[in-house]
Amino acid sequence: MTTNDYPSLWGFGTTKTFKIPVEHLDFKYIEKCSDVKHLEKILCVLRSGEEGYYPELTEFCENRLKGLAPESRALRKDKPAATAASFTTEEWEKIDGDIKSWVSEIKKDENKMHFHETEASPAMQDHLPPVRGSNSRVHVSKEKYSNSRQPKKKIPRDYAEWDKFDVEKECSKIDEDYKEKTIVNNKSHLSKIETRIDTAGLTEKEKTFLATHEKEKGNEAFNSGDYEEAVMYYTRSISVLPTVAAYNNRAQAELKLQNWNSAFRDCEKVLELEPGNLKALLRRATTYKHQNKLQEAIEDLNKVLNVEPDNELAKKTLSEVERDLKNSEPASRAQTKGKRMVIQEIENSEDECGKDSGRAQEDGSGDKKAAEPAGPGSAAEPRAMGNIQKKLTGKSEGGKRPEKGAPRRGRAPGAGADKRGRLRAPAAAGSGRGAGDSAAAAAPAGPVPAATLGPADLKSQGNELFKSGQFAEAALKYSAAVAQLEPAGSGNAEDLSILYSNRAACYLKDGNCSGCIQDCNRALELHPFSVKPLLRRAMAYETLEQYQKAYVDYKTVLQIDCRIQLANDSINRITRILMNLDGPSWREKLSPIPAVPTAAHVRAWQPVAKTPHNQGGDSCSRPQPSIADEKMFKTLKEEGNQCVKDKNYKDALNKYSECLKINNKECAIYTNRALCYLKLCQFEEAKQDCDRALQIDDGNVKACYRRALAHKGLKDYQKSLNDLNKVLLLDSSIIEAKMELEEVTRFLNIKDNTTSFNKEKERRKIEIQEVSEGQEEEPGRTSEELSTDCPVSENGDTTNGPPEFYEKLPITKPNNAYEFGQVINAITMRNDKEACAYLLTITEPKDLPVLLSNKLEGDTFLFLIQSLKNNLIGKDPSLVYQHLLYLSKAERFKMMLTLISKGQKEQIEQLFDDLSDTPNKHFTLEDVQALKRNYEL
Amino acid sequence: MSAFEKPQIIAHIQKGLNYTVFDCKWVPCSAKFVTMGNFARGTGVIQLYEIQHGDLKLLREIEKAKPIKCGTFGATSLQQRYLATGDFAGNLHIWNLEAPEIPVYSVKGHKEIINTIDGVGLGIGEGAPEIVTGSRDGTVKVWDPRQKDDPVANMEPVQGENKRDCWTVAFGNAYNQEERVVCAGYDNGDIKLFDLRNMSLRWETNIKNGVCSLEFDRKDISMNKLVATSLEGKFHVFDMRTQHPTKGFASVSEKAHKSTVWQVRHLPQNRELFLTAGGAGSLHLWKYEYPVQRSKKDSEGVEMGVAGSVSLLQNVTLSTQPISSLDWSPDKRGLCICSSFDQMVRVLIITKLHKI
């Protein structure tokens, strides 16, 4: 017997409305029940209250239902509308403010519209289609099948007639299958949408409205997946009013339709209107990716990631692009091994393409010959560095790979640039050279007819081999080139140096460190202070564990260009190693670091376009400007540098500012401009530039140093001090910085004094003018000093005599310890013994201990002694004695005595001797002796 | 979607009126709206309000002989902004609100009350400015303000067939100068779609209960969706992109309100969102979601549409009386007015619509 069979036995029964067994209205049952429909019914019964009022059970049931089916209709409840109280204050202010600002805005717009009202209407009328059915002209074309309808048009018609018309239409289009028609219907409307909107006679407001409206339609179409329609509406929106958003959205829709070219154009348009638009960059990267322009894609993506490092989409795309690059790499490598000649051939043709399209291929082989010294070396660089240090990071990998991507892209430009195109190209070239090549393809890389090739060709072959990892063969090529060039003598020093440097890279790769060092030495002999051979030699030394030599080389490199990250890192590493090996005095064991001539410095500033490649891992993260911009940038910068040399700072300033418009990521420009500002005494601007430079490169010594100067110019000595300390921390060998440091410290003290002095004087209202005069001179002097600090300065002698610039200190009788302290400080600072003597004459000796209070220090003491000895002893020996007597009673006297050095003691002794020699009635010899004992002499 | 992410419906401003209000409409490009209705003394009234400092200011009150049932700014340019109204006597008038004494256009269009009116062209939608009216006399007529006295199209039942009360009309498909459709809903649940280009009845269906309100998601695109609300608290969303020769348009229906769904209005800035106004003074905000594939082939290889789904984003109850009309501001996303039979007009703000 079950409850189901005889529910009444238990006395429960069922509910009235849904006939649910009453025992289902139970916590346990509801907890277990997973039938949503049933639960809804239970909830309904519970809510109706027909079985009693159980608020907790109802709530429990609601929660259970919510867990199972959150969207259930039974859960919908009537709620009152929200009011201001439903929101937090800020939220409500936002909502309310939004509406209020809209209201006031729309009122303004409305008033404007009224103004136009009368004039525009007629134009609108002209563009309207005629009245339906009333203008026979339009109906002429339709009459073929609507003849019968024409006279009836104004007469009321019934549904049957409507249907009949349908039939007629069917008859007239008898060849058209109805089914087909409905299918076509889906897309057919697209062709009928006008892509342009006639905006004649529309006010600006209306145009904006229309453009936004069309764009919204586009957005909706896009969201529902009708990309073609979306493109159509975006186009319409653009036809009314071109906006960044519309172009950007159209680009996205085109991407969905895989119209890469159109999407690319739209992205370009956006970037033209709004440079640096992230979405557009991202979308352009996608078009690049699909057009197999992987290098450009990476550039764009890096730009995006620079601004938004967390952009997931950009990261994803970047990794995809990099994967694509890697995937395509083995294929090209295999080719290089197999048919070198063929590849060479293609490379030539690629040169033309590269030039024709005028693309930014500065690192690709397309420009190799033109770019000469930087090209091959820089291509080799990251690889070499990575290998040696076993620090091949993902980034440097990325930086290196694009270099390979670039030539590949060049090979089949315009032809969709897909793999197939690439593979076909060598084949075509091969057949052009004759049948012999098919054999060559299979054969191992045989020596090329080297004799017939010039050194330049040999070098480019070597570069190609190097890039494909054939280091030994590359070295052979370079050797051949060297052999050809060497007899030519010094005329080819530059080229030879590069060849040696390149060969050094090959040796380094092969682990032939001594060979590498030899080559580097040769390269450096031919062309001293070039970065690459130095770097390579440093790495070779490091590998050979000759750390001192490596350190020296790295240090030299940094002198030439302090931005080379690799060198900075290596320096740090080697410093640690050397400290472990040699202890704290490791520096003493170093051979002297050669001083780099300034010419090399300046040169190091110039190669902006090249340096990124020197920096290995950095190169890929740095957005690269287009080639035109880059050229512009370079010339501007060089002009700027020239202007600086010519001391034409204003022009230089303008040039650098232009540079920054093209590329605002270049540290050197900021530091250079800062220099100009410094020269022009525009310290605030100089400081800002240095700040920016330091934002880009935290460890930039120049920027730091110049900021110190700027701070000094702004009289912010404390900050100046900090910066100088930082400079010295970065590089303790900078003498200028040390000098500055001393000077600034002195200023800092003087300033403290003068300000307090000033205060004091103000209180007494005496001789304020004099003091302020002293202050006024400061800016002038600092700027003069500045010019001496700068490398290209002309007058260097003004620094030496700060005291000369001060008027005689106004000294009055100090009333308390504080005033005395101020005066004595000022006097010590100026080293003005006369003033001190004067001070001592006007001061009562017996007041001295009070005035000195506990501030007696070695310097002050000595100064007092000196002025007593030099200036007072002859005039008034008794005063000297009195002073000495009372000085010995000052607070910290004993302590101070223990601290003074021998030489200083001798000075005191001399004073006493002088004192003893001067006869006087105010004190006896014994008194002096006793006092002398007090002075522990 | 968490509670805070949900759009909230805020009753921003409420104002009691001294007449029965039937319809309210925003004046385009302004913070003004008009309310239309009838005074207890049996005359018609149009009031023009403006939002000022968080309150409503009555700018103008126009009294007319006959109670005014409905109005639209649909067939006028932004520069003119003439209001077209239909009244209890079956007159269609077009008013210049700046000079409302004499109508710009006037026609005795129907024998009985004009229940519903819609306009297209000039402002939104391509092609000629046209106004469609639906009346208790069972006819649906299309008017061009440039043509006096006679409609440019007239749709009425065959003689002898009983005339159904037309409760709602809507323009759609006006994506170029030629294409245009009118959809009409009747008290018996009939929905008829008239193609004005071909002058044909393109499609009809019956949703069993009286059709209170019809609206295309947009008038000025190739027909995309149509929402029809009914007397018994249900509404239907038709996907109008794919028409099957026999099955017509695919649809999804949802029971939303406990009583009549009086109005449906799509957000002008996002066609997938719409608001329905219920008989018990409730407002529901819905979102339509498309299916993965909007069309599929039936067994005979003929394309047929696939309906998506609707989800409720928010619902509130504003009053105990039915909400008779509803209008989104065409200029400000989330701003909305509604009138209800408790003689109230409310300005609503609906938040977070841009996030959906």
TrEMBL record, chain B:
Keywords: Apoptosis, Cytoplasm, Repeat, WD repeat. InterPro entries: WD40/YVTN_repeat-like_dom_sf, WD40_repeat_dom_sf, WD40_rpt. It is found in: Dynein axonemal particle. WD repeats lie at residues 131-144. Its main location: other. Coiled coil: none annotated. Key assembly factor specifically required for the stability of axonemal dynein heavy chains in cytoplasm. Component of the PAQosome complex which is responsible for the biogenesis of several protein complexes and which consists of R2TP complex members RUVBL1, RUVBL2, RPAP3 and PIH1D1, URI complex members PFDN2, PFDN6, PDRG1, UXT and URI1 as well as ASDURF, POLR2E and DNAAF10/WDR92. Interacts with PIH1D1; the interaction associates DNAAF10 with the R2TP complex. Interacts with several dynein axonemal assembly factors. PANTHER family: MRNA EXPORT FACTOR AND BUB3 (PTHR10971). This is Dynein axonemal assembly factor 10.
